[in-house]
Amino acid sequence: MSATMVPSFITGANARISVGGLTFAYASDVSYNVSVDTIAVETMGRFEAVSNEPVNYSVGSEFSIVRYTSLAISASGGTTIPGVDTDGNGLSPSGLADQFNPNTMLTSGTWELDVYQKANHTTAVANTKSQGVVTVVGDAERFIRITQCRANRMSGNLNKRGIYMVRVSFVGILMSDDSFDASSSGDGDLSKT
């Protein structure tokens, strides 16, 4: 890298989190993990395994929300913060609350988690690593997508010195980023029949 080039690192300060197409104001601390479970293939006459073969692919993730309530909005003179819900920023507007309500969890749907990086352009740009086009929405381009997510844990934290934080954990089917696009394993097999 030359001394005149300025690197563009991805940080939480220039990221935007979208849950089911809805941008979450004050969402932060996204983390994810992709696990590939393997099984050792063994044969007669050898102590060591012949190979380790994949048998399962799973995605787990979580994010935090810095909470505010409708009381905080009215205490500020009745003015609302641009782009946020006047009832506060809980899980209800996104539909995530349905996945924690025993009455609606069976009928709740899945959603996509997208993380966007603020960009200085507003058009799609070629991405040679994924042989495709990076999705650009407004002034941001998507660099992480987790598909068909379903929430499975929610926790909150409130103390005298801090602010109210809600942490949502969930599982997804596939995770892609700007360097590759993950696809379902059965798609190629089914197209050959």
| CATH architecture group name | Roll
Relative helix content: under 10%
How is the quaternary structure best described?
single chain
Class per helix and strand makeup:
mainly beta
Largest sheet: 9 strands, antiparallel
Radius of gyration: 21 Å
CATH fold topology: Pnp Oxidase, Chain A
Short description:
By secondary structure, this protein is mainly β. The protein has 2 helices and 11 strands. It has a single domain, classed as Pnp Oxidase, Chain A (Roll).
Describe the structure.
The protein is mostly beta strands. It has one domain (12-68, 95-191): Pnp Oxidase, Chain A. It is 7% helix and 43% strand. It contains 2 helices and 11 strands; from the N terminus they run ββββαβββββββα. The protein has helices at 70-75, 185-191, and strands at residues 15-19, 22-23, 27-41, 51-66, 111-118, 125-127, 132-134, 136-137, 140-157, 165-172, 175-177. The strands form 2 sheets. Strands 1, 2, 3, 4, 5, 8, 9, 10 and 11 form a 9-stranded antiparallel β-sheet that branches. Strand 8 (136-137) and strand 9 (140-157) form a beta hairpin. The longest helix has 7 residues, at 185-191. The radius of gyration is 21 Å and the shape is elongated. The N and C termini lie far apart (48 Å). Mean pLDDT is 78; it is low at 121-134.
Fill in the keyword field for this structure.
single chain, 193 residues, mainly beta, Pnp Oxidase, Chain A, nine-stranded antiparallel β-sheet, 43% strand
Strand and helix layout:
Blueprint: E1 15-19, E2 22-23, E3 27-41, E4 51-66, H1 70-75, E5 111-118, E6 125-127, E7 132-134, E8 136-137, E9 140-157, E10 165-172, E11 175-177, H2 185-191
Antiparallel strand pairs: 1-2, 1-5, 3-4, 4-10, 5-9, 6-7, 8-9, 9-10, 9-11
